[in-house]
Design goal:
353 residues, Beta-lactamase, seven-stranded antiparallel sheet, 9 helices, globular
């Protein structure tokens, strides 16, 4: 939830969904390379690749919970960090679809008078979803305490008290956890219940995923003084519209696949949600941020997804609409997913060259 990492790939092409010139899909040779890479990296976590409705590759390594001896697998829940922002986006666009939210309406119209936010008469819902609001990051608040349990309601006052990092919205992308807390608060007012309840009722219950049921959870670890110690983000009850929910790869795939097949949104709304909006200044030209989603198009490929990380967990996923391919990598080590995940993406990019 703290980090915003994107693909660092050296080629550059314009974005947009383009007709596929030839299929760029994984094969057995790719899977052998991925398995070998995972072993070389001493990967702790799980990776899965789906092509269509088929699980074509999976690898799990390391312990999810050393105290119980639980091994990592596709059914273990990990903290997926800022991937939760994509869930918030789905919920917002469900309201856009029904006419309850206008992307270009200022947010003061969706918040009560006693819940003012700096610049709320200038910031629109679009600004919040595209990280262009100028609200900054609640993790930088002097009142934020890592060990405390948080949700949208308890984080919102921190956002209200923080100074703007830009005087006017729309002046470029500045990754904003605070902006997504405001989106969560708007949803809470529209639904009349907590953000966590909204996610359960609107997204998870549809797929018979009960977040409160006893489950196998991974413990996340960070590196300190060359030793692995318990990291942040190990409380499955502490999460918000900015991220931090625990899901397994199997659960997230069910959710993303359901979305892709018009389960939560109609096609037109989904394509709008994934339409590139802003290009991060420090990234290659093919890397864009849409509405709560990352969109990259190296060569003639098209990647849609998000990354997430706390000091203890790292997660990433991408959906490739041109071949109906889904790639998920979750790790219970800080920065533990990047090497294996990037290896998979680079294998596809090399096929496109």
């Amino acid at each position: 939830m703290h980090t915003f990492s994107t693909l660092m790939i050296s080629s550059a092409m314009s974005l947009g969904i383009m007709p596929l010139t030839s299929e760029k899909i994984f094969d057995e040779r790719d899977f052998k390379i991925l398995e070998q890479t995972a072993k070389e990296l001493e990967f702790s976590g799980s990776m899965a690749i789906f092509q269509g409705d088929q699980l074509v590759f999976h690898f799990s390594g390391g312990e999810a919970n050393p105290e119980t001896g639980l091994e990592n697998d596709l059914n273990v829940r990990f903290n997926i960090g800022s991937i939760g922002k994509s869930l918030t986006s789905i919920l917002i666009f469900r309201q856009v679809e029904t006419g309850n939210i206008d992307l270009d309406q200022t947010i003061d119209q969706y918040l009560p008078e006693d819940e003012r936010v700096p610049n709320d008469s200038l910031i629109t819902v679009r600004h919040l979803l595209t990280n262009t609001s100028g609200l900054g990051d609640f993790f930088d608040s002097p009142d934020y305490v890592e060990s405390q349990r948080y949700d949208v309601e308890s984080l919102f006052p921190l956002v209200q008290k923080m100074a703007l990092i830009k005087e006017r919205p729309g002046m470029g992308l500045d990754y904003s956890n605070s902006g997504f807390i405001v989106l969560g608060r708007i949803l809470e007012h529209l639904h009349g219940k907590s953000y966590q309840s909204i996610v359960q009722d609107e997204l998870l219950n549809v797929l018979n995923i009960n977040y409160s049921n006893p489950f196998n959870y991974a413990s996340g670890w960070k590196l300190e003084n060359e030793n692995w110690v318990l990291g942040e983000g190990n409380d499955p009850a502490s999460w918000s519209s900015a991220g931090g929910i625990f899901l397994s790869i199997q659960e997230l795939h069910r959710l993303i696949s359901f979305l892709v097949h018009d389960g939560y949104l109609d096609q037109e709304t989904r394509e709008l949600m994934w339409k590139p909006q802003v290009q991060p200044s420090h990234e290659p030209p093919f890397v864009h941020y849409a509405f709560g989603w990352m969109v990259e198009k190296p060569q003639d490929l098209h990647f849609i997804g998000h990354n997430g990380g706390v000091r203890g967990f790292q997660a990433a996923f991408r959906y490739l609409p041109q071949t109906d391919t889904y790639i998920y990598t979750f790790s219970n080590r800080e920065n533990g997913a990047e090497g294996l995940f990037m290896k998979a993406l680079m294998q596809l990019i090399q096929k496109a060259e």
